Amino acid sequence: MKYARQRAEMVGRQIEARGITDVNVIQAFQKVPRHLFVNEALMDQAYGDFPLPIGEKQTISQPYIVAEMTQALEVSKESRVLEIGTGSGYQAAILSEIVSRVYTIERIHSLFIKARKLFDKLHYHNILTKYSDGSSGWKDESPFDGIIVTAGAPEIPESLIDQLSTGGRMVIPVGDQYSQKLIKLYKDEKGIHKVDLGGCRFVKLVGTHGWNEI
Ligand code: SAM
């Protein structure tokens, strides 16, 4: 009950009041129990207006940024979406309420296992997980209607652009290690189009098409 009330407040104050209008996104935020995606000691802070640590020096993003990125993907019931950076699994769970299938990749084994167990426990049966370097995408399952990268990349990996369907959208933070621009990329018959959605700060995308480990 306590968390349901906190969740309703989060949706009102952090999501709707800041201009998120996509009904599917709002309903997903009303539904997904964010407190179950953080460690027990942090549950009471789960609906706050900030990111939280999830272990392994990684974070679950601030609710508003999750909402902004999800809305920017412009996906619906028929969509298939690829997420790079499963982390806690919260972003994938939000997407799973909206689209037909979510493919999510995580490169840190302990986070991958924890998220996989949580998806099973909460019956998110349309989430497919992979333990791998996601900067190369998931070629066998491509093309995707949406690709969301929840870690900061030095540049947009060509491999991911290749795996986006014509008519698809990608949302990805691009910049240096300290600050990035949130880029929305469209792919159509004429080519690639990019829109800058503003500044953001994410942990590093580490991998072949991202940053080196150190
Ligand atoms: N989407 C997550 C959530 O809802 O909790 C938050 C993701 S956290 C900000 C970034 C995640 O990206 C971390 O778990 C990190 O290990 C992962 N990551 C970084 N580089 C990656 C890569 N090349 N492939 C897959 N995951 C990666």
CATH classification class: Alpha Beta
Hetero groups in this structure are: S-adenosylmethionine
State the helix count: 6
The average pLDDT is: 97
Strand runs, count: 9
Contiguous low-pLDDT stretches (5 residues minimum) are none
Identify the CATH architecture. Answer: 3-Layer(aba) Sandwich
Shape: globular
Task: Walk me through what this model shows.
By secondary structure, the protein is α/β, with parallel strands linked by helices. The chain has a single domain (51-200), classed as 3-Layer(aba) Sandwich (Rossmann fold). Helix content is 28%, strand content 28%. The chain contains six helices and nine strands, in the order H-H-E-E-H-E-H-E-H-E-E-H-E-E-E. It has helices at 2-16, 23-31, 63-73, 90-96, 109-121, 158-162, and strands spanning 52-55, 58-60, 80-84, 101-106, 127-131, 144-149, 164-175, 180-188, 191-200. The strands form two sheets. The chain has a seven-stranded mixed beta sheet with strand order 5-4-3-6-7-8-9. Helix 5 links the parallel strand 4 and strand 5 (127-131). Helix 1 packs antiparallel against helix 2. Bound molecules: S-adenosylmethionine.
